[in-house]
Known about the structure:
Elements: H1 7-21, E1 26-32, H2 39-47, E2 51-57, H3 63-69, E3 77-82, E4 85-92, H4 99-112, H5 119-125, E5 132-138, H6 143-158, E6 162-168, H7 173-178, E7 186-190, E8 193-196, H8 201-214
Parallel strand pairs: 1-2, 4-6, 5-6
Antiparallel strand pairs: 1-3, 3-4, 5-7, 7-8
Helix pairs in contact: 1-4, 4-6, 5-8
Amino acid sequence: xxxxxxxxxxxxxxxxRICKDMKNxxxxxxxxxxxxxxxxxxxxxxxxxxxxxxxxxxENLDAEYKNFVGKFKLxxxxxxxxxxxxSGIRFSGIPKGLEIxxxxxxxxxxxxxxxxxxxxxxxxxKKINKNIDVAVFTSPTCPYCRIVSETSIKLAIESRYIRTxxxxxxDFPELRDRFFIQTVPAIYLSDDFIFEGFLTEEEFIALLHxxxxxx
Length: 215
């Protein structure tokens, strides 16, 4: 379970500011297979009337929701919706540390459907016309992870072909061992296509193009 100290109060203040600027209502589906602690999400729902939380147990998952789970059945898994529309953004593990800021920004991006992706990155992104499911392995204390995670989230907002999942590797060490992850951030596109290290926006998009070409 994540422990939140005094810095959590600052994130709550940030959530209050973000809530004022949010345009559309956000529905958050939390998929669980245990008694996961989601107090952090409950607190966000309390302070922002534009956010609604729904908990769904994996054992009760119907066909409608299975489409949003992604490649890995992890608990808890957070899926972000703008109204009834899936934003393409998922988080596995309750955000903590630097991940909290990334999560809050993802709510804003999903609500407004706008990001600060560069003009050139947008041009490169338009060339992608095949579905890609991205996973970014992170840790709560990694500053480069935050940048790469936010890039992946922006790409999911800007392109209907991209879905992304931010996975806290400290919560799921079995994935680190399974894929022999040596460092984070690590970008997973398939069992045979994993990139470890920092990427700029344009480098990230180039990696997606390379993956499509190799597939």
